């Protein structure tokens, strides 16, 4: 959305459905573009923008931050946000390549629809 977010911290709500309002990536922090979203839909593997989901996200995030009510949509995308039944997987594993070199791999997934909000904090752990 084209809007100004006065706080550098994400706003989230999990009442009935996941919602978030997030500042842009640090590379775009001088812009007035913010990221909103949030759905929890087990078994939905569609990558198409759904008008019903769009309206729900816009309504829920405007309830969190009323100044977003008439904000202009700059772009839209969808993504699959896998959820793990046993929670987030966060662990480091050393993988040996076929050339004998050992590389660290950090597994940081399973956040479901909260990945954009939570992944960075988990990565810092």
Q: What's the count of strands?
A: 5
Oligomer: single chain
- Uncertain ranges: none
Tally the helices. 2
Approximate shape: elongated
Residue-averaged pLDDT: 79
State the separation between the terminal residues, measured CA to CA: 30 Å
What summary fits the major beta sheet? 3 strands, antiparallel
Secondary structure category: alpha+beta
Strands side by side in the biggest sheet: 1-2-3
Order of helices and strands: EEEHEEH
What share of the residues lie within helices? 10-25%
Q: What percent of residues are in strands?
A: 15-25%
Radius of gyration: 17 Å
Give the helix/strand layout.
Blueprint: E1 11-13, E2 19-22, E3 35-37, H1 51-64, E4 89-96, E5 102-109, H2 115-124
Antiparallel strand pairs: 1-2, 2-3, 4-5
Describe this structure in words.
There is one protein chain. With 125 residues, the chain is of the alpha+beta class. The chain is 19% helix and 21% strand. It has two helices and five strands. The strands form two sheets. A three-stranded antiparallel beta sheet has the order 1-2-3, covered by helices on one side. A hairpin with a 5-residue loop joins strand 4 (89-96) and strand 5. It is elongated, with a radius of gyration of 17 Å. The relative contact order is 0.19.
